[in-house]
Amino acid sequence: MATVTLISDEGASPDVKAVFDDIRTTRGGDFINNFWRALAHDPALLRATWDRLKAVMGPGELDPLTKELIYIAVSVTNACEYCAHSHTAAARAKGMTDAQQGELLSVIGMASQTNALATALQVPVDEAFKA
Amino acid sequence: MATVTLISDEGASPDVKAVFDDIRTTRGGDFINNFWRALAHDPALLRATWDRLKAVMGPGELDPLTKELIYIAVSVTNACEYCAHSHTAAARAKGMTDAQQGELLSVIGMASQTNALATALQVPVDEAFKA
Amino acid sequence: MATVTLISDEGASPDVKAVFDDIRTTRGGDFINNFWRALAHDPALLRATWDRLKAVMGPGELDPLTKELIYIAVSVTNACEYCAHSHTAAARAKGMTDAQQGELLSVIGMASQTNALATALQVPVDEAFKA
Amino acid sequence: MATVTLISDEGASPDVKAVFDDIRTTRGGDFINNFWRALAHDPALLRATWDRLKAVMGPGELDPLTKELIYIAVSVTNACEYCAHSHTAAARAKGMTDAQQGELLSVIGMASQTNALATALQVPVDEAFKA
Amino acid sequence: MATVTLISDEGASPDVKAVFDDIRTTRGGDFINNFWRALAHDPALLRATWDRLKAVMGPGELDPLTKELIYIAVSVTNACEYCAHSHTAAARAKGMTDAQQGELLSVIGMASQTNALATALQVPVDEAFKA
Amino acid sequence: MATVTLISDEGASPDVKAVFDDIRTTRGGDFINNFWRALAHDPALLRATWDRLKAVMGPGELDPLTKELIYIAVSVTNACEYCAHSHTAAARAKGMTDAQQGELLSVIGMASQTNALATALQVPVDEAFKA
Description:
Six copies of one chain form a homohexamer.
Chain A: H1 14-27, H2 34-39, H3 43-57, H4 64-77, H5 81-93, H6 98-121
């Protein structure tokens, strides 16, 4: 039901196979989720997207679970069905508890609400907030 | 330039003043930002919004800074100008470093990009992701 | 600061002038707001947009104020700054009271919140809701 | 297919059961739609969301059907699939006619279009619109 | 699973049938996609939408395929599932190659990313960009 | 008014200066727009964003102007004020005529409208559209 067919391991070109291999090595498992199999229709876009994802979501100043929570927040606000599923699953795999998920949802709900109110009211930015 | 006038301390009704007082006590400072001064046109909405915000953003399973980062992620995705400013300022006040802000932006940018790709491709949700 | 210059009455071509005249007659006033002066760069788009707006927002099954409230709800959710201002002004001109505006904001805030929650949770549609 | 399992009546904790009971009493029926069964994973969020929804959507300055139309407008603009279904069903239950639904859609379509045009043109807000 | 039932050829009123006939003549085929069958519940909205679509997407300064690519870009950003499918199919019918689709996705992904960054950073508009 | 200060040429670190130099060489001019000066707070994000932008917007299957039109379509739908300005300016620099801009706006407006209608109606995807 994608707008392209999904690329199986058998149908993967060498360029695609190289990315699939890197995903498997990086994640330590055999599973390649459908996003990459759909993106594989354009090997250059697949490579650029995976390389950047690996760099962005890797170790840094923010811990990996925090990054996943931020990713979920953006995905939900963009109404991305696939991404809500895939990044919720990823957050669970990185240790998100039920209580943390509940708080994440509470913050997302709160922000969505006050975003709409601030926009409706066209609140002018306080001088104190300017960098 | 708001769609309502802002309520000053002098113009605040007792119900509004009670919320302003609670904001000051909770935050430990005199500053009331414009969002609350605009919302004060509807004292019941002001009260409900503030009470909920205080509950949601208070201590819990996620630390206060993580909650602010999630708040920023939602606000940016909703293109809320005021909220991008106010919650970036709030995150800084809670200790967000330049390096953390850079990673936050990187994750928001990455998620925005893959959200669009997943939606364009209409990627079907993997069985493995279903709860 | 628009991405096009605004068309003054003096700079209006006959096609543009005809639309401006119809706006003035329909609204019973001389004021032409900037939206139409910007759109006037493309007389055909100006004409199509105005004709459709006049038909949609005119008398019907829903009263004119209700239509404006719906218009505001969409505009706020789309984060359209200009539209939040112009349609709030239009709603006031059609009789929106402060109390009604407060309830409008409350509903918009509530919907924004539950929209995000339903998307985050990927709630399956109940059989009972299907047409 | 939700990102959480749905809570049945049998699986409901006392806190959840209390909210379910209130939903049934308020709505005068036995049906609990999936949104609440998903949200029930976090009893505090369930309670806060339901209490606020009941207050916001209850009797006030705007009639209940008008509130539902506004709710639909926000939900559609946020691309919330579940919410489009559930609030269209709710509006019908509150008396929305086919003709009213047609006008609602016409206003939503019109607003979506002019929102995009105003944003593309970056139309400056008229002085006359400022509160 | 639509919020309305779909109107079949047999169930079409004369007004609806006239639009269906025009769609068939214009497109040179018998197929009427579900969008029009759902919209047919409001014959006036069906007529207005089809007439405008025909005018906008017809021959002009931009070639038909370019128009479809723009349509896909908007639809994806609005997270419109149906529209992503229908306009991707339309673009293919108008000659979109796999390589063009890959570039389209790359641009959509890039724009989504920098849009989020510019909003997060609240970058002030350069004087040089003002019309 | 950005959420960060803008980095001047004098304040640029060697890593930032290298990107600024590449922007100047690639574009054949001295002007560095504010987006890059804001992004320069995170040299790694600046580098990754610029490198990707250069690759995506360069010569390919779609001509540079078509890519800019797609970029504008996404930016407008995301309500990105800065991006609407900067990419409209870029499209003009690449030869966009007034008539082409009018058609671009017409398509964006049309898509915005039918996106909302398709979502409101929750139109099921036609079998014929599936890849």
